[in-house]
Amino acid sequence: MNLIAWTFGFLAMTFNFVVIAKTPGYVLKSSVLHHRMDKMLIGLIALGDFQMGVYLLGISSVNFYYSARYCEGKFLWLSSQICNVLGVSNTFASQISLFAMTALSISRISNIGKLVGNDGQSLVSWCKMISCVIFLGLASLGIALVPLLPSLEDYFSNALYYDGVTLFSGAVDKPTHQRVLQEYHTRFRASQSLTWATIRQMTREMFSQDYGGIVGSTVGFYGNDGVCIFKYLVTPSDPQHKFSLIILVLNLICFVVITTCYIALNVRISKVSKAVTRRKQMNQPRTHRKLYAKITLIIATDFACWVPFIAITMIHFLRYIDATEFYPLFSIIILPLNSVVNPLLYERVFEEAVIGSFRRLSLWSKMESPSKGDTLGATELETMSHVTFNNE
Questions:
Q1: Are 218 and 160 in contact (CB under 8 A)?
Q2: Contact 233/327 with Cβ under 8 angstroms?
Q3: What is the rounded CA–CA span in Å between residue 150 and residue 325?
Q4: Structural contact between residues 56 and 15, judged by C-beta atoms closer than 8 angstroms
Q5: Which ranges of the chain does DSSP label H, i.e. alpha helix?
Q6: What's the pLDDT tens digit per position in 340-388?
Q7: pLDDT tens, 130-168?
Q8: Contact 221/240 with Cβ under 8 angstroms?
Q9: Is the terminal CB of the chain with fewer CB neighbours within 10 Å at N or C?
Q10: Is the Cβ–Cβ distance between 210 and 117 less than 8 Å?
Q11: What is the rounded distance in angstroms from the CA atom of residue 254 to the CA atom of residue 239?
């Protein structure tokens, strides 16, 4: 698993760095608004996927550092700020990449076949593009940072960890605190619901201040597991289950939108392909087979990343299984898969090799290669595909 994390992290950073480096040139060179917007969205996808690579290398480095000592330092790690930073990084990367892919699919189906459009150089066009980027970035960052807000501590914090205090062993949740405090504080009522701030104050009163007193480190939302990812695996008893389910449903909606848009895009291109085929009495143009392969790969990789993951989280929520042991699998392999694959699908430098390999392994390789006349007859389809997937 650690080898996979190092490999995925390195590949995600390398591939997406290429896309990020090319994005400014694409954006400045495009003169049509929806072309420019598509390039910027692809850059956002690459930014999120690059960030996922940073997370993978970070969590791999932590695993290498702790190694066999993880059990000893487990709760120090789960309550550390580094764990929170990695959790925010992972969540931001996943969300901005998914949101940008959703926006890109909508943009493509909305503008398919348009040879001209709004002036991409105008101030209004720049404002629209920048506003979209800022909105997607703030939405992703907001989802990642909300669990760390001090004002929502009672909703998102899971426990406190007291290093070196034998009275409190491991990560101590609220019910355990309340039982101990009930025995120590005579003014405490069993039915009383305490905030974490009150618990900290009452706990400090139990110990001498001669050596600095007692300090509890928060085991927060991202400290639910050693890989420090968003707490998707929740049950009805978890205080955070509503927030987690809302984000999960939002991600499912994004996947449905992406799939629907690309299926509609393929249907539109198929109609043009069939019309060209009938008119020229030729075989299916090579361009359509290439686009079909690309669209199939986009849908398949999104499906592989999100559908099994969402299914497992819902089964876990209904308490049919305990899926917490799958956290490393989700964080190291399932969710980061798109981060490695996306640049291969959205950047022309990698696309030709990937699509070519995909076609050679498929039944399409058995089809007769189009003749010179076929290629010339597919001009209409090629024009549409160029406009839809321009310069990626």
A1: yes
A2: yes
A3: 29
A4: no
A5: 2-29, 33-66, 70-78, 81-111, 123-145, 153-156, 174-184, 196-204, 241-280, 286-317, 327-329, 337-346, 348-361, 372-377, 379-388
A6: 888 887 766 565 555 555 555 555 444 444 444 344 344 444 445 444 5
A7: 898 999 999 999 999 999 999 999 899 888 988 877 778
A8: yes
A9: N
A10: no
A11: 25
